[in-house]
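Before a colleague's protein record goes any further, I have to sign it off. What it holds is a sequence and that sequence's fold in token form. Would you go through it and say whether the fold makes sense for this chain? The record follows directly below this note.
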Amino acid sequence: MTANLPPLTLYLAAPRGFCAGVDRAIKIVEMALAKWGAPVFVRHEIVHNKFVVDDLRAKGAVFVEELDDCPDDRPVIFSAHGVPKSVPAEAARRHMIAVDATCPLVTKVHNEAQRHSENGLQLVMIGHEGHPETVGTMGQLPPGEVLLVETVADVAGLVVRDPGKLAYITQTTLSVDDTADIAAALQARFPAILAPAHDDICYATTNRQAAVKAIAGRIDALLVIGAPNSSNSRRLVEVGAAAGCGYAQLVQRATDIDWRALSGIRSVGITAGASAPEVLVNEVVDAFRARFDTRVELVETAQENVEFKVPRVVREPA
């Protein structure tokens, strides 16, 4: 027993943290820097995590919002969230070296949308307006071919071209439960609408949400390590709250923890969004050990062994 420190049990959710798509995207930037040297330009944050972005920036990556901010003579990498078709087309027109770090599971949704469109179907996308993944997916097809819904209420207001020729797709980082409700509303209003052949929500998002549900009943508070602009991290907070966590908060790192709000607690759950590195989880655990007599228990609900290959362009020698 640690002298004078209150007892606390930390439940570490597993899986947590980096997914295969994030791991691949970071590796692509690092390999591009090794191959072509600095600077390498990255359109949008490669993944939504300040710690990761700052680390890559220190190694020579330059993060920009648009292709217009990139010179023609340096490589440009497209983020894991994907980009509209117009972006690689413009890079090709400018004869740029372009490397696509789009998560293969997002690319799968892009291909699905393209296939449905070629079959004469209009698409409905369940997603968050303005999120890079949603912008990228909707940008695979001409304007008006993909309609966005964010809530069940949005379904009632949809104006479609032909109710008999519809299919829906989803952003990969959403809450499984919320998406199911919206999908049910779409199917109730448009009985002929085609559902995805496989659930578009990625395995990592599903697994991390299931792990939070598994610890929710045992904890007084839940801390999700992740960035405010990370969709999958924010969904983990929502999933924890819906599963009964009276206090569920998103923190970027240990310095963001509100210790006063945790006064008197006996158990805390910790997880991390798919773009948060394990070093930040360890930092949070150490912060608890400094303040509590801490017992750590791992709660593992699934094992992940997915690995995605990086593009040939960064594997080949310069």
In short: The domain at 104-189 is CATH 3.40.1010.20 (Cobalt-precorrin-4 Transmethylase; domain 1). The two ends are 57 Å apart (CA to CA). The chain has a mean pLDDT of 96. The longest strand covers residues 7-14.
